[in-house]
Write the structure tokens for this entry.
Amino acid sequence: MPNVHAFLSASSAARWTNCPPSAKLCATMPDSSSPYAQQGTDAHSLCEHLLLKALHRPTKDPTEDLQFYDDEMQSAAEGYRDFCLEQIEDAKDGDEAPFVSVEQRLNFSRWVPEGFGTGDCVIVGSCLHIVDFKYGVGVLVSAEKNPQLMCYALGAYDAFGALYPIERVKLSIYQPRREHVDTYEMPISELLSWAENILAPAAVLAKEGRGEFKAGSHCQFCKVKANCRERARYNMELAKYDFMNPDLLSTEDIAEILPQIDALVSWASDVKDFALKHALSGTHYAGFKLVEGRSTRKYTDDQAVIEAVEKAGFDPYEKKLKGVTAMTSELGKKKFNELLGGLICKPPGKPVLVPESDKRKELATNDFMTADEG
């Protein structure tokens, strides 16, 4: 799997198509790695292996080389493999199987200078299907008009469009740790129109460092999000309400504020993290100082603690029933369902207020109102 990224990468397309000048700013900042990124890389390697093995293609088991391999990752990768196999089966036209490529390098430089990326699973027939595996648990990723997947689809269309009568495009996100599978479908004409009218013009501006700064949800993975002036202006728009008691705000006021709250909290957290990082490097912020945070006690030697407690005649351990996920991993899905299928329930989740674009079914409020009044 390639470990290189284009200047105008597919993975960051949501950002630079909305905020073209951010591309050059981010290019000047050093790349940072995290355990989460390595965990995602490991999971992708396992997914690639399992899918190739299922397709009877040459592959080497990577598990002994993976830093974060565990039962959860194995289960997630197996689910991804099964999902891809289902999509391949669905794409068959009679007895004719579609073309399938795993970890396919895709070049969409016809629209984006030096634009390329890697498609996790590319299925090509009359319908071009891009399946993208997401191991992250923090951000729920939607397939609907997803710029990253649309760039991949353009690269696949450029490579295989002359060989296959592609009429439709399907984009799928498989995000197992959020129990989220999402698919969006569009005609190929819609994809090509987006490429010509939105993607390509934005790429020209981004390459030259021109265009307007624009803040929004696409700021999430921007390298300069913490000290971006436009993002600060965008989030400080809430200040016009002077943070009055919500009882004094109208329904319309609250409806205007709600979409911004998550972004505001995220921005504030980013600014605090940025300030701490630079304070540790010597920067002084008027009115603030560095101090040692709260700490909790911990054992210096677990084995010595166990021996000391047992010698005194006490039990140093606590026993706890394994959770559903851990028990599924322990028993395997088939045995789990066989033994415990009748002992599992899924209680209603706590009500949350979300945008209307959320795909979950809307709840009736009568029950909650009755409970409150009682």
Notes: Residues 370-374 have pLDDT under 50 and may be disordered. The first strand starts at residue 99 and ends at 107.
